[in-house]
Specification:
The chain has 350 residues and is of the alpha/beta class. The chain is 40% helix and 17% strand. The chain is globular, with a radius of gyration of 20 Å.
């Protein structure tokens, strides 16, 4: 483990046959990079939120499989594919809601299956996962440009959770749009919700926006209504973990109540996500919402904030229905209601 000087936020990277990640559980107090050479370590990192955010875990899963390739002692293609399938299962089962994880793993498996020799497959899955990481940044930048036209000079933009550089390889989805809006010459302010229980808003969004010189104000989740009712918010933008073909958006717990409140106050509510976050096969009723450990709710960090043996309900995500969403920003353009039609068009343009 190394405590490096921070230059730019590169959340996850492949270097010298190792996966390097920012340990997000240590932010904002310490910027620590961890190095992994075993896919099981990558699986643990995803499970324990060392790395989190849908696109970041998609690329991390891909890097995990590339490590599994290097770890394999297989001498035939069939043996190697079997080792990769086992690793894929372990990586896939870490978190159920973000569709990018399965997408990234599937993409790497397809490259492996179409390969020829053991050595060629090992190298090609490394190259493919590195390419995915680079593409993630390019996609975020394009998405940012597409979304920036929806925001005006002097807007104050509310965001929930962290859909920034730290949730992707770099640049971010929702925060990428905010970055691109500023790069287009507009002045914007940001309101970040704290995002209990794991506090991605205060620990990560506030950290990365402050680092990049944005005017950012932190609010407790309970102040969303107050902020909107008192005219402090012009627009809202969030990321997504999964979007189904009807435009139902799964994102960090609390997103739904922010969207309801935005509707109540006539404030546009936007979602920014790459096409890899869309799940065109599932119905919204079938999406599994990850339930996390109650200790995330009964304490903050090491401090206990609830009585012993209390029952806890701790869903990590919720669903925002399409009627609350003003537009879904992607690298292929902005989908507007009716979503079933506009989302289909995005994929046809692909
Ligand atoms: O539990 P997390 O921190 O992985 O949840 C992350 C989110 O909900 C983000 O908003 C989402 O992944 C979009 S990231 C670009």
């Amino acid at each position: 483990m190394a405590d490096n000087t921070f230059t730019s936020l590169r959340t996850v990277e492949w270097k010298n046959n190792k996966v390097i990640m920012i340990d997000q559980t240590k932010l904002p107090n310490q910027l620590v990079f961890v190095e992994y050479d075993d896919f099981n370590q990558v699986a643990d990192a995803i499970r324990t939120l060392v790395v989190r955010g849908a696109p970041a875990i998609g690329v991390s899963g891909a890097f995990g499989l590339a490590l599994a390739g290097l770890q394999s002692k297989a001498t035939t293609k069939d043996q190697l594919i079997s080792d990769l399938e086992k690793a894929k299962k372990i990586l896939f089962e870490t978190r159920p809601t973000a569709v990018n994880l399965g997408w990234g793993l599937e993409k790497i498996m397809n490259v492996a299956i179409s390969g020829t020799t053991v050595e060629q497959i090992k190298q090609s899955i490394i190259s493919e996962s590195k390419k995915m990481a680079e593409e993630d940044i390019e996609i975020n930048k394009t998405m940012g440009k597409n979304g920036s036209v929806l925001f005006d000079n002097n807007d104050t933009i509310m965001t929930h959770c962290n859909a920034g550089a730290l949730a992707t390889v770099a640049y971010g989805t929702a925060l990428g749009v905010i970055r691109a809006t500023r790069e287009s010459g507009k002045n914007v302010k940001v309101i970040a919700t704290e995002t209990r229980p794991v506090q991605q808003g205060s620990r990560l969004t506030a950290f990365e926006l402050k680092h990049d010189g944005f005017d950012v104000s932190l609010i407790p989740d309970t102040a969303v209504g107050y902020s909107m009712a008192n005219g402090l918010v012009d627009k809202v933008i969030v990321g997504a973990d999964r979007i189904v073909k009807t435009g139902h958006v799964f994102n960090k717990i609390g997103t739904y109540q922010v969207a309801v409140m935005a509707k109540q106050h006539g404030i546009p509510f936007y979602v920014a996500a790459p096409l890899s976050t869309f799940d065109m096969k599932s119905n919204h009723e079938d999406v599994i919402i990850e339930m996390r450990n109650g200790t995330e709710v009964t304490g903050i960090g090491d401090k206990k904030t609830a009585p012993d043996d209390i029952n806890v309900i701790n869903p990590a995500f919720d669903m925002t229905p399409p009627e609350l969403i003003s537009g879904i920003i992607t690298e292929k353009g902005v989908a507007k209601p009716p979503y079933e039609e506009s989302i289909k068009k995005l994929f046809q343009a692909n």
